[in-house]
Amino acid sequence: MNNKIPHQPSCADPFEEDMISLSEALTRIEGRVVPVHACERLPIRQCLNRVNNEAVKSPLNVPPLPNSAMDGYAIAIDSLVADSIVELEDIGTAYAGVPFKQDCGPGQCVRIMTGALIPAGTDTVVMQEQVQVGADGRIRIDSDHRGGQNIRQAGEDVQQGEVVIEAGVRLSPADLGVLASLGLSQLQVKRKPVVAFFSTGDELMSVGKPLEPGMIYDSNRYSLYGMLAQLPVDVLDLGVVRDNPESMREVLADAAERADLIISTGGVSVGEADYIKPALEDLGNTEFWKIAIKPGRPLTFGQIGSSIFMGLPGNPVAVMVTFSQFVAPAIEVLSGASMRPPRLVTARSLERLRKKPGRTEFQRGIAVLDENNRWQVGRTGKQGSGILTSMSRANCLIVLPDDNAGVEPGDEVSIQFLDWA
Ligand code: AMP
Ligand code: MG
Question: Which CATH class is domain 344-417?
């Protein structure tokens, strides 16, 4: 007699028939998220981390004119004599911002400061450490110099008309500096996407009240807020939504009016999908994906009106992992930038990590440099998807790809540093 109960497919299985891979999920997201269209013109400081709308062409050469890269003496290279020392008359000083106006003639040189324009009649700068100043003030220079040395040529950084920042680039601190070096005070950037988020669950209480029996505090809205606050988006916190279809429909309809992206957490497990599904189906097109990852297998993705909806799992670790793997890339595309591949770094595992092939696992790790400046990584301890402290103790995710069948101590693994760690 058979005394075993056949199991239904579940997240305990390493692989299920209708699962999609991590990369397939990302390809779908990339294909379906439409970037925001509207732009705004802003002072360049406010453009930090925003997405550039049109390629920036330089209106000028940087630097505009040749100038000195050193403190020293500007000379004509022809005034030097092979294998000898010449003595030149110092006829004045060129300062940064205060050009030297006379011509420099034969037998003469000009004292020059870094950034000063190269005086007429000179073509070379000799470092002050490489000359001798005689008691009579004359400047002695040997023949060990190359014509044109120590001069920053006009346009050597940026040529007039050159594209310096492409459209779709997220602007870095260096980009702000480059824009300023071109004399640009404003730039047209994509408007910030608006991201709304809420938690679902009858068991959730907000902080600030004593906990009642059977209830837990809503942590997801705080970790989500933290991750969103680090991105250039406007954030709308829609609170906790109770587990019933009416509340769900109401909040989704409201969010779709106000946000470009709507994120929910929880309510997608087998027992609960019943009332979230109808609400989603009434309001838009939504698909339930089973992604071959751990944690974070179920992800709901779709459209409500002109907004993107992403329904994350409820477990607090799964929320943070799926945010980092799917929501952050979706926000990149929504913002008008391109999806970046994750920045993976190789590290040696300090531990044995058990894993079955079939899906990509994200374990929480602490990476440190060893004595040879190579990364080594250990786990934060318990790895359950409800163990949120595993996330706060971690500085990285240990990413074990689909085909990985376990790791021995000393094996190389890929790690992905957490941006906020
Ligand atoms: P669910 O997907 O709604 O069944 O949630 C899965 C698990 O995550 C349950 O144990 C929930 O209590 C927990 N959970 C869901 N939402 C939250 C939240 N906002 N904060 C903390 N835990 C949550
Ligand atoms: Mg729930």
Answer: mainly beta
